[in-house]
């Protein structure tokens, strides 16, 4: 025996219940915002996200793989983005030179490797880099990759003047950009 189709009034009653639930939810949400303030609710959400992230890391044992050095973590995230930017590194040779001069990571036969292979090799090698050197590089790259127009102009001028990456890093470390 087939189930009876719902009558039009039954459909509208179900629809009304859904609307009532939504209205009730929004009213309660408004009460929370009025009671605690929007900024405090945002803070609660951030705390909850941090707790959830921490719990996930503990549950899966991910913290043992996380680098202890925050500069290492920063560089692992930023280096691929910077190396992928053709305005900063227009060729694989520039990436290989940066790697050797700044990170002290020599890449054999770099001319036979793709850009992505170079980036992967360099990022994996940051785990063995000197902490003090990583700190200097991270500080300089934060200034370079700040998204500010003057950082782009500085980089362009340095590249036109044929400055080495070592000189550029030193200038960035000395500048107040």
UniProtKB/TrEMBL annotation:
Species of the source: Desulfovibrio desulfuricans (strain ATCC 27774 / DSM 6949 / MB)
Superkingdom in the source lineage: Bacteria
Protein name, per record: Uncharacterized protein
């Amino acid at each position: 025996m087939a189930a009876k189709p719902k009558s039009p009034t039954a459909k509208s009653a179900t629809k009304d219940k859904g609307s009532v639930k939504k209205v009730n939810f929004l009213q309660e949400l408004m009460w929370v915002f009025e009671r605690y303030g929007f900024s405090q609710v945002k803070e609660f959400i951030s705390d909850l996200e941090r707790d959830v992230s921490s719990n996930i890391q503990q549950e899966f044992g991910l913290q043992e793989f996380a680098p202890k050095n925050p500069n290492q973590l920063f560089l692992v995230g930023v280096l691929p983005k910077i190396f992928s930017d053709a305005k900063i590194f227009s060729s694989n040779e520039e990436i290989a030179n940066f790697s050797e001069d700044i990170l002290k990571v020599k890449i054999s036969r770099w001319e036979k490797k793709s850009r992505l292979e170079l980036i992967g090799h360099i990022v994996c090698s940051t785990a063995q880099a000197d902490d003090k050197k990583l700190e200097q590089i991270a500080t300089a790259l934060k200034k370079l990759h700040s998204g500010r127009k003057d950082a782009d102009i500085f980089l362009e001028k340095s590249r036109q003047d044929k400055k080495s990456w070592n000189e550029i890093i030193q200038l960035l470390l000395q500048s107040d950009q």
